[in-house]
What we know:
The complex is a heterodimer. Chain A is α/β, with parallel strands linked by helices. The radius of gyration of chain A is 25 Å and the shape is globular. In chain A, the strands form four sheets. A seven-stranded mixed beta sheet of chain A has the order 2-8-7-6-5-3-4, sandwiched between helices. In chain A, strands 11-12-15-14 form a four-stranded antiparallel beta sheet, covered by helices on one side. In chain A, strands 1-13 form a two-stranded parallel sheet. Chain A is built from 13 helices and 15 strands. By secondary structure, chain B is α/β, with parallel strands linked by helices. The radius of gyration of chain B is 25 Å and the shape is globular. Classes of the chains: A alpha/beta, B alpha/beta.
Amino acid sequence: MDSYIPHTNQDVKEMLEAIGVKDVDSLFSTIPAEKRIDSLDLPDGMDEFNVLSKLRKMAYSNASADRYSYFLGAGIYNHVIPSAVSQIVSRGDFYTAYTPYQAEVSQGTLQSLFEFQTMICEITGMGIANASMYDGASALAEAVLMASRYTQKYKALIADTVHPEYLETVKTYVAGPGIKIENFSHDETGMVSVKDLKSKIDDETACVVVQYPNFYGIIEDLKSIKESIGDILFIVVANPISLGILEAPGKLGSDIVVGDGQSLGIPMNLGGPAFGFFAIREDQKLVRTMPGRIIGETVDVEGKRGFVMTLQAREQHIRREKATSNICSNHALGTLYASVYLSLLGPAGLKEIGELNLSKSHYLLDRLEETGHFERVFYGEFFNEFVVRTDLDVRKFYKTLFKNKIIGPLDLSKLDKGMQKHLLFCATEANTKEEIDKLISVVEAI
Amino acid sequence: MELIFEISTAGRRGFIPPKSDVKGYELSDKFKRSNPPRLPEVTEGDVVRHYTNLSRLNYAVDVGFYPLGSCTMKYNPKLNEYAASFDGFSKIHPYQDESSIQGALELMYNLQEDLKVISGMDAMTLQPAAGAHGEFAGIAIIRAYHRFRKDFKRDEMIIPDSAHGTNPATATMNGYKAIEIKSDKDGMVDIDELKKMVSDRTAGIMLTNPNTLGLFDERILEIAEIVHNAGGLLYYDGANLNAIMGKVRPGDLGFDVVHFNLHKTFSTPHGMGGPGAGPIGVKKFLEPFLPVPTVSKKGEKYFFDYSHKHSIGRVRSFYGNFSVLVKAYAYILTMGGDGLKRASEMAVLNANYLKARISKILKVPYDTKPCMHEFVATTEPLLDHGVKALDFVKRMLDYGVHPPTVYFPLIVHEDLMIEPTETESKKTLDKFVEVIDKITKEAKENPKLLLEAPHVTPVRRLDDVRAAKQLVLRWK
């Protein structure tokens, strides 16, 4: 039980003598006596073997991607992760380090974050990226706050095809500063309705938010959206793994690009932790209103290249109540997964992964349509997810899939009552043709 | 070291994706990427060597003593890492049916229950991703509570001058005015000031107890009474919870909302700055305001509970940093109630031992009573030799120890904030004292050694001003 605490009785005795008190308890004398407790009502500690047995049992009772095929996405995706990723992020000198406050002994962290910022800029086509946020949803919320901070306008227009949990997160964040959120709709293609968007723009509008590809998997036409919103800040929530084949949002007029990094080499982990990324166009004024840590290059006293946290005057530990955000801990280790992943894949690999997602999801849709039980709902082009309407009994369908070791698509009626019998299917490079064909044969047998 | 982009060679590959077994799909030209991203083109071996060599430039808990005040850099047990990597924990999707992740839900439920016991709170959410994120959610709950009661006048959040920067920043994010309260001569909340400060505009007070000086505010019950009588609520910043487990519970001291830093108190690693996890606990009357979902149990079945009537909503996607939760739960199972109590006792013993020894070398302000898990010393007298706290800690790097937190809290000049944690031995602490002693002598005899430090680190002192003026934020 004490394998983490080194004190022998002799140590304790000597230390108490040096302090000049008779026992450990007297060190707690400043706590009001009437409120002090003697023990915690928790079970006794367990040895490693028994802790692991208990946890292994809990883990094994979950249906997981090592034993089931997944056709489920909606923000978290089952992708192939190269073995080298977990080997590198498991190095103790990465994961047991703290925030790089002492730059001279944190160059590993700082350089890897600088490389990460570069990779995010490269894939998004943006000029500046920070060293991470918690997740895609909170990154979006911070982007909306930043837009109002920058423009001093207090209305945000958000497409109704943005992930519903992201939208809910934004709503929580804007309650304090009092930013008004308005949604604009999509049309039968599943893409945003530029007409509806235009009708909602007014002088108070700070920003417009769209997701790329959107929650229903549809690829938005960012260029035409940009053309219709003029100078209003354009925030794009992107799935980074799609950017090997989709045009970089930075090329299409976006001012801020955020998103969740889970698809870049991070296990699903029941939805966390991964990381949020946050990138802006190259703009010296905009960067000073950005949240989160930013790593910059500099030199040491001998002229040798090195890296430090920079523009810290934006941050809470310096600026306190005037900081751009309260964020302190971020998700640096998540960025290391992504940096290693993107380094392994390179431009060719990222493109191939994108093409695989595209072809697998289209094969899946074709096969589903052939069964006669599924009908495509939106006609816009999609990346690795799409919505179908089904004539099957959804509950029975899920049960049958589960029996056949398949985790089915997202039942959209759970999020939106108006979408009964609408399913959001996903296929990635991790889904083999064999798996997809098996799914189809299960459907056919219903 | 070279950047990974600088070792790139066109045509090299580090990973080969699975071969396609279905027919290709041709994307419309208008959506196609025009120029590929300039990612590195390297082999797997290149990648492994690059990052392995980078990692060797880092100081870390696995490398040595890391007495960073308020950060609780305790040892990160390996079994926790191993357990979190189990397929059944890491390869599960947030939207798969609850019936297929009962083990994960059970773990979350049990962790909620354990944290309630430890903190004396009535209801928990595991959703926040970090301490500051927990603060954000906690203060949003306080705001929602006042507004629900149509008490719209309350727009002030009282925060001591010794508080972490996240506290005032959090107040602002929630639309509150951060009102700073000065510490008195003992480093505690100034009670007379507080009495004058509270009014019908007080939404609450954010306190860290023990505070960032490492001192337990003895008048906490009086503070609670003053704030509650004025209609405000008490927020407990749990950054320093490692001092009091099994000794006292924030819930018994009058706190209404508490956040935990699982990456501090519950041994989960800091990951170069994150991910952590910042669950919050609340008293019963605030339960309806918790973010959704939490995890509940009906009969033998665990489920995501969206029933909180006046929920502030979500503070992030999905349910929280699940794999961090697994690690914290593994730690609680391993330690048990007695082990957690012993952790706090030994953390406090270590801090007091270090304080007793270091006070013979450096000045220790507020040294009239025992400290808790950390304490603050100052190198101010060394200013006479031209040596600042920054020079002092840079010299520590040459001796292979990680410096304490420096220049924080703001109310002590030239300060070092030292938190040894319970996982360090007397021998490690003795060596640390020797280093402090040696550097103090150097400061007086040969200050140049400190002013030019560090000397033997991978890079020497870096030019922060240049970094901020000539912004280079990416490789080009």
